[in-house]
Amino acid sequence: MSLTNSDILDLVALRHDLHRHPEVSGDESQTAQRITQAFAPLSPDRLIPDLGGHGVAAVFESGKDGPAVLFRCELDALPIYETGTPAHRSLTDGVGHLCGHDGHMAILMGLARLLSRQRPAKGRVVLLFQPAEETGAGAKAVLEDMNFDPIQPQYAFALHNTPGLPIGHVALTAGPVTCASRGLEVQFTGRSAHASQPETGISPMAALAQVMPGLTALSHGTTSDPDFALVTVTHTQMGEPAFGIAPGDARLFATLRTLTDDRMTNLCDQALTLLKTACETHGLSFTHAYHDIFLHSENDPEATAIATAALDALQIPHDATGLPWRPSEDFGRFGHNARAAMLFLGAGHSHAALHNPDYDFPDDLIPIGTSIFHRIARDLLG
């Protein structure tokens, strides 16, 4: 069974509608409503709203014993102004589906169409439209939601479109596939002064000048190394935008990244030691907080073998190119309770990169992604 030409046209239209109306993490209410409306003619056995926020889960039952198999996509878009000019360009200034989550949703809706025509022979399929992936909060919130407990899966699968890989080619391997990461926010406090008498204050300038290259120097290795680490300074602000005031405070954001969760504690300790030394040297105090905490994603060997068999049956080329992936993905949390695997579906060698302002999901991936997920479901559940 596969999607019809009419199905594909409908799914492309849905994807374009989602693209026109993006919503950032935590604010996906209208996106969830659009998904709920799209399920109306498909009659899932259960439709569970408001999971972990605005998440939606559709359940297709066999009525017989067997495993629960979850397929997950994401609802949220990015706070980035879209500069591309497709006919379905974002209608919301400063927000865009520039990571392809609109396409991932269309793929799951394609799977829903096939399941509505033929339920699994055993067990159940759960289609999860997860909120707040981009902040790392969504998977955790879903897993902690009591309404998710009755549909906890034994297997979990997801995919992410991947510019740089040939279109339709899949990257897949067992073991770590996406990195652990977290945002470090640092507030430096000194004492402001008149710009004509900077010596009467305590400026954070010298500490910032020491800390920024010091943090990035903590980076080492590549994702093929178990002790890979990467620190990226993403934002800094010092004092007031005025000519008469020598600054007395500053703020810095940096993203800390390691291959696996167990390496993150050491990187955090190194960063805090550097901050403490710099602030003591220059007479400052500082506070810090962590945000957007992502655990690494680990592909279970059995789930990876199941996905590999599906790709082989469909004659879809695959290898481990580009893995592990530097970006982070909160899908890794589902692997703590289920045998999980994430696939990386090529979007084209020259396609705009994820989070680029001119990125747009390739519609040709919708039937490919749907066929992969459908084959996995049929191989596990009949």
Enumerate the strands of the largest sheet in spatial order, edge to edge or round the barrel.
1-2-4-3-5-16-6-15
Q: Which sheet architecture does the biggest sheet show?
A: 8 strands, mixed
Instruction: Please report which band the strand proportion falls in: under 5%, 5-15%, 15-25%, 25-35%, 35-45% or over 45%.
Output: 25-35%
H and E string: HHEEEHEHEEEEEHEEEHEEHEEH
The class by helix and strand makeup works out as alpha/beta
So what's the overall shape?
Answer: elongated
End-to-end distance: 12 Å
Question: How large is the radius of gyration?
Answer: 23 Å
Please give the number of β-strands: 16
Low-confidence stretches: none
Helix segment tally:
8
Helicity, as a percent range? 25-40%
Give the rounded overall mean pLDDT: 98
Provide a concise account of the structure shown.
With 382 residues, the chain is an alpha/beta fold. The chain has helices spanning 5-20, 29-39, 101-117, 138-144, 205-216, 264-282, 301-313, 365-381; strands at 46-51, 55-61, 68-74, 124-130, 155-162, 170-171, 175-178, 180-189, 193-194, 229-238, 245-246, 249-258, 285-294, 297-299, 318-319, 339-346.
Structure overview:
The protein has 382 residues and is an alpha/beta fold. The chain has helices at residues 5-20, 29-39, 101-117, 138-144, 205-216, 264-282, 301-313, 365-381; strands at 46-51, 55-61, 68-74, 124-130, 155-162, 170-171, 175-178, 180-189, 193-194, 229-238, 245-246, 249-258, 285-294, 297-299, 318-319, 339-346. An eight-stranded mixed sheet has the order 1-2-4-3-5-16-6-15, with helices on both faces. Strands 10-12-8-13 form a four-stranded antiparallel sheet, covered by helices on one side. Helix 3 (101-117) links the parallel strand 3 (68-74) and strand 4. Helix 3 crosses helix 8 and helix 5 (205-216) runs antiparallel to helix 6. It is elongated, with a radius of gyration of 23 Å. 47% of the residues are buried. The model has no long low-confidence stretch (mean pLDDT 98).
